[in-house]
């Protein structure tokens, strides 16, 4: 039997080698973000620290706040993201368990018969038939001499962080999607209101035209043109109603409810949320720490680097301590006597001398995955900067466009009033009235669409900046 004195040199040698950890050590990639944004901050943006948690409250819309809060609690996709985090945590427990001793309990009973013609032959006094009772414990502990298990634990820990950042990235997208669809629903309602107001005004114009026609003061052509303008405007209503209902349906699904669950709640006509006067966006360097997708890509790179070490450890021998202790007897009566005891303990080593290149091929594969993860990280960071730049440009330019549209609405409103007065007094033809009425509706509708675009661009900017996940969930 192996004595503790015989095992001691093995343990000392293992302790000396325990500081070795194969594979490359991870170092976060160095990145050089631009010092300033390329887009001009001309839409109310500032370089102050970017808005973080609860950015949607800058719209001052209680209904939007409520929808966001409910989505964070009941969204089904977010629930799946939580499950992925728990999976990663469990995987870490599995990896860490490999560094600890394993203990197994065994017990058995067998009825055996030995061959009378076997070798060596069994003497006649010994029966050929026997019962064998056995119970015991066996233990094994693979020593992590070269750090393969430590690297696997590092990879699993990085996977947890990546899963958590993935959940946060999903939160950012979820908040943006809820806000975007809510803004769309309110914009459709506002466009419906404008269409109905214009339909009412165009019906009054049609009544006026028919009255003038009956008095012989105008032609049938004017009546038909007035009716055509009314029909054209009425034709806009179904598509606008469809747009509102589609946005409401999607909001219901985002909240983990049936599509039509929010129709009644959103049916009340509410003003379109308007952006705040100032929007702090921070500096480009801040984006690397705020965007969860960038941080997720960085953690995936860390995990891929650690797995190179885990694969490299297979090039080296595996050292283990094993032991077995128990009771064995051919008779139940003396099973628990001292003579039934047995035990064994000692070190073991296993080394894969030849495996047809599998280990090195696996190392090459893990190295390539690490290179892929690095490229993905760099691409994710570049895409994040691009997304912010596009959002800044769109938000600023749309506000300039809105100023012109607002001026056009005011001018068209005055033009409609003047054209009607001139037409009643016979000083202008009907075509001028129709054109001014059509121009007014189009400019009013375009202004609402611009308001919708501004709010949507701001939501996209907040999303690109990576804010919102800081909320406790």
3D architecture notes:
- There is one protein chain.
- The protein is an alpha+beta fold.
- It is 60% helix and 11% strand.
- The protein contains eleven helices and six strands.
- The strands form two sheets. It has a four-stranded antiparallel β-sheet, covered by helices on one side.
- Helix 4 packs antiparallel against helix 11 (430-465).
- The protein is elongated.
- The two termini are 58 Å apart.
The number of domains is 1
Helicity level: 55-70%
| Rg (C-alpha, Å) | 38 Å
SS summary, helix count:
11
The largest sheet is: 4 strands, antiparallel
Strands in their spatial order, largest beta sheet: 2-3-5-6
Q: What fold name goes in the CATH topology slot?
A: Outer membrane efflux proteins (OEP)
Total strand segments: 6
Shape-level CATH architecture: Up-down Bundle
In N-to-C order, the SSE pattern is: HEHHEEHHHHEHHEEHH
Shape: elongated
Broad structural category? alpha+beta
What is the arithmetic mean of pLDDT?
A: 86
CATH domain class: Mainly Alpha
Indicate the proportion of strand residues: 5-15%
The H-level CATH homologous superfamily, spelled out, is Outer membrane efflux proteins (OEP)
Could you tell me how far the N terminus lies from the C terminus, measured between alpha carbons in angstroms?
58 Å
Low-confidence stretches: 14-18
List key phrases describing it.
single chain, about 475 residues, alpha+beta, Outer membrane efflux proteins (OEP), 4-stranded antiparallel β-sheet, two-stranded parallel sheet, 11 helices, about 10% strand, elongated
